[in-house]
Amino acid sequence: MAIYTKGILGGFSGKVGPVVGSSWRGKAYMRSKSDRKSGVASQAQLLQQQKFGKTVGVLRSLKPLLNETFGSQGQQSGYALAMSYHLKNAVMVQNGVAEFDFSKMRISSGTLPNAAMTQAPVLNNNQLVLHWHNNSGLGNAVATDKSLVVLYCSDLLQGVYFQSDATRSMQTQSIEVAMFKGYKIHVYQAFVSAEGKLLSNSNYLGQLMVV
């Protein structure tokens, strides 16, 4: 109900149909009533919140790395770009529930060529062993590019990353994985130029059980 303060031609406070009346410092104002219901989220909004929360949970432990390996765009940090990429490409909805697809996870983005694996990753005495093809000379790939590896445990929502002295031309790398004993880990690899300015898109190398 609205209250008239100066008769039928004066200002009013309250609501009349789609119009809301109010006053500020002695002056009367009218505005249209908002159609939104405050505090009530739609199903689509709830699903988007779920997807966002799922992505934040997965990427949180890798934030320092992603700030470096996804570059920047205007005022957007590398982590913000990584969040955007994964929300669009790695979060799937099944039966109304958001699920993260770790096979679509990316730990870096760039134009440097990656390297094809010559065999699947293997575990040997708590060491993860990788072998790849030396494709130096393909595009701007060179022998001194360094391997960047991320191990991610989805049960713990924890990722660790390694950039050792293993170069493209060395074609192999061994990584200690005892910290994930009893858990499955997802393995990702990318290459970084020796000066750290160029990166490749990462490759997903599969999932292994650390026993």
Distance separating the two termini = 71 Å
Shape: elongated
Taking pLDDT < 50 over at least 5 consecutive residues as the criterion, the unreliable ranges are: none
Q: Regarding CATH, which class of the largest domain?
A: Mainly Beta
What does this 3D model show about the protein?
- With 211 residues, the protein is α+β, with helices and mostly antiparallel strands.
- It folds into three domains: 3-32, no CATH class; 40-106, no CATH class; 109-211, Immunoglobulin-like.
- It is 17% helix and 38% strand.
- The chain contains three helices and 13 strands; from the N terminus they run E-E-E-E-H-H-H-E-E-E-E-E-E-E-E-E.
Structural key phrases:
211 residues; Immunoglobulin-like; alpha+beta; 3 domains; 3 helices; single chain; four-stranded antiparallel beta sheet
